[in-house]
């Protein structure tokens, strides 16, 4: 115990081992939903659920433990919400079949390598400084609405409508169950119950088992239900060895093609601001700000771990790993050192053997979580000065175009381009950093490349 205390400097940071362990458990409970939700989203792009689940657990465990050991900060990491949607719906499905999930994983790996280089040479911070805050907030919020839209469409709450483009899917047993799950989980979030999201998934899943037909994998139906189209297939076993269907199956060569330049850049951009904004936010909450520099403590080391997380995500077979805002839960429980992150990371490991039972969780149980995560992600909208149209117009375009075009890329591209054009028209070209001009070039290329093929 003394060795642990000395390594993490627990007493020096005003904490104790018991508090750090409790804080680690709290952090784990608040982000454990990613074990089920992440593979569920990537499964839309025909990635094997069990394989992605194994990759998700490894990224959560290795990245969080690395953060704790290398930076001595209580921040946990996991595949980013929003980034997984970008991989599934924009890169893979949005390509019309030309980009395989193996190539997408290659893109994740390459973006991770670039991340590492940018972090080592301290260029990453300069890129962040060049991006207008209003655009960061607009993009983050747009991704949140996009996630909520995915959740609503997965359960049939929102459907395609030839007359109005989209419409209400009507009252069905699945929609009713979704609403119940959303309200129950929302209530627990409001009451600040630790692990509210994962408990919401479990409760909604139990309700789904009650109203849906249950079919055992060997073939026997348990009982009839209100919704015969949503049968739940029970596995023959609860435990299984980790699934390696996506493990080290990335296609780096395919990711190096000309058409993958923009997806890789978008991964870099989205992951960069997701991780940095989260890191800064949790640092402010926990008081991990250096009094002299006014910057988060160990920011350089933390960004390097974040880059490492993205790199191994591509190797293991999942969307990029990033620092999670749920880490604030552990900080609020008193977590002050890396032991909190190590404990949270270790708690993920046992779940790598539970893929048969975890994959039984129906979509209707995870859809409410996507809607609530969308709610969490639009909080930055409050920071936008909406009356200042010079900044708010580009942010608004990013906000609405991400869900309406079903593409994170399009929202980012038009946000950047509109911001630059407005500045030029106002005679403020000198206010545009060189880095932003370079980003604009990539944005324009993304719009013109399809016509050059």
Task: Provide keyphrases for this structure.
single chain, 453 residues, mainly alpha, two-stranded antiparallel sheet, 6 strands, 63% helix, 4% strand
Q: Label the structural class.
A: mainly alpha
Largest sheet: 2 strands, antiparallel
Q: Rg to the nearest angstrom?
A: 22 Å
Q: Please report the number of helical segments.
A: 20
- Percent strand: under 5%
Beta-strand segment tally: 6
Spatial arrangement of strands, main beta sheet: 1-6
Cα separation of the termini: 62 Å
Q: How much is the average pLDDT?
A: 85
Helical content class: 55-70%
List low-pLDDT spans.
215-229
Give the overall silhouette: globular
Order of helices and strands: HHHHEHHHHEEHHEEHHHEHHHHHHH
Describe the structure.
With 453 residues, the protein is mainly α. It has helices at 2-8, 17-31, 34-42, 49-71, 83-92, 101-120, 124-130, 133-154, 173-190, 196-211, 252-255, 261-286, 299-316, 327-332, 338-348, 355-358, 363-377, 389-404, 408-425, 434-452, and strands spanning 77-79, 158-161, 165-168, 214-216, 232-234, 321-323. The strands form three sheets. The protein has a two-stranded antiparallel sheet with strand order 1-6. Strands 2-3 form a two-stranded antiparallel ribbon. α6 runs antiparallel to α13 (299-316), α9 packs antiparallel against α10 (196-211) and α9 (173-190) packs across α17. The relative contact order is 0.21.
